[in-house]
Amino acid sequence: MIPVPAFLTNPERFMAFSRWAAPMFGAIALVLGLAGLWLGWSAPPDYQQGATVRILFIHIPAAWMSEFVYACLAVASLLSLVWRQVLADAAAQAAAPLGAGFTLLALVTGSLWGRPMWGTYWVWDARLTSVLALLLIYLAYMALRASLDDETKAARASAILALVGAVNLPIIHYSVDWWNTLHQGASVFRAGGSALAAVYYWPAILLALAYMSAFGSLWLVRIRGEVWRRRAETAALRAARG
Amino acid sequence: MSRLGALMARETTLAWGRGGGPMVSVGFYAGVATLLPLAIGPEPSRLAAIASGAAWVALALASLLSLDRLFERDFEDGALDHLALSPVPLELTCAVKCAGQWLATGAPLALAAPLAAMGLGAPPSLAPLIFACALIGGLAFAFTGGIGAALSLGARRGGLLTAVIVLPLFVSPVIFGGGALSAFASGLPWVGGFAYLCAYAAAAVALGPLFMAAACRNALS
């Protein structure tokens, strides 16, 4: 058994923890986000891309988050499937719409950037296609969750689907190499240091941290909501029994 | 071994014999291949350019059709409960079910695929590769699709849900097969894409039954 701190497994302790952690992450996200946006706005226009380079400060962290949230979803699903953690299931359920939102943001900002740069909103490049597939997997997860009436069965079935979909994540990275058509390869984290100049590197990093804190905050809030919903349901059942 | 043999015979007979068997899938496949020129236009040059790709993607769609029969009927009439109770592990049962599905619908579709592609104007030299891709790809589609079919057991609108779950998982085999076919058509090395397709099919055969059995147990619990 992996040692997991009690504030992540015990609902009471979790509620006490998330009560102050959620606003704290939200405040961190706000500060880092404003700093990153200010740095990004004051960065000089790129010599090739001009001012459109600023779209990338929104785009790159969103693309990272789309995969990071899926990793969170898959780990939470594994915990709920193997160790029957109730909170892990609530966490998986809460993460899916957030991940779908980040994926959609990455696709939309990428397409807005692609119009002036590549001359088209959308190309059927392997990487774009696999991010689209990631969005479809998020949607399939939410659809499966919504269409099974029994909550325990829905939780386990969607956890299995999340693990099946986790097979897709390595393929996303791999497909960049196999089908490298138009989307550039990894630029920030690569052997031999970042290809980005420091003026572009720091806004992207700050915004990535801001996105991550914002996700942490929203995730905790959504899990709290899910815990409250289940408590209300139990209370209603108890009241109905009399 | 005789238990597995009996199971295989049952699955293949059911998939082959009941509800029209392979004719339904092949008929659907022929229908899609007929509608395509009607929608795209009859110019041979334009059709020939898309022939192998269209035949390939229509195959993925046709293999979706028979998925809802894979577990749903056994689940409804209680046969799945009996199969889960038998000494054969449920993982192996699921694998045999998918293999039966592949024999009964995947193999006939693989025979139809080169015909459809050549009907759309693909060169006959492409036919062996289309057949091989369709045969191997059919294996991948059956074992990946089985996961979706098992997960949507007991769901409202199960058939549609299966398609929503399975189509994103079909992305990579469709890319690999399509890549091999288009590389062969333009005289480039095609073995890479075909090998990736085979690898994907092997992984689906190895891992798919584990997920399917977990999903079946969950639906039966």
Number of helices of chain A: 8
Oligomer: heterodimer
Helix and strand string of chain A, N-terminal first? HHHHHHHH
Distance N terminus to C terminus of chain B?
28 Å
Q: What's the alpha carbon Rg of chain B, rounded to whole Å?
A: 18 Å
Largest interface: A-B, 29 and 26 residues
Instruction: Give me the strand/helix succession of chain B.
Output: HHHHHHHHHH
Structural class of chain B: mainly alpha
Note the main sheet of chain B.
Answer: none
Q: DSSP strand (E) fraction of chain B?
A: under 5%
* Unreliable segments of 5+ consecutive residues of chain A: none
Query: Mean pLDDT across all residues of chain A, rounded?
Result: 84
Largest sheet of chain A: none
Helix content of chain A: over 70%
Helix content of chain B: over 70%
Tally of separate helices of chain B = 10
| Content of β-strand of chain A | under 5%
How many individual β-strands of chain B? 0
What does this structure look like?
The complex is a heterodimer of chains A (242) and B (221). By secondary structure, chain A is mainly α. Helix content of chain A is 79%, strand content 0%. In chain A, helix 3 (53-82) packs antiparallel against helix 4, helix 5 packs antiparallel against helix 6 (151-166) and helix 5 (126-147) packs antiparallel against helix 7. With 221 residues, chain B is mainly α. Helices cover 84% and strands 0% of the residues of chain B. Chain B is built from ten helices and no strands. Chain B has helices at residues 2-17, 22-40, 44-65, 68-77, 79-85, 90-119, 127-151, 158-169, 171-185, 191-220. In chain B, helix 3 runs antiparallel to helix 6 (90-119), helix 6 (90-119) crosses helix 7 and helix 6 packs across helix 10. Chain B is elongated. The two termini of chain B are 28 Å apart.
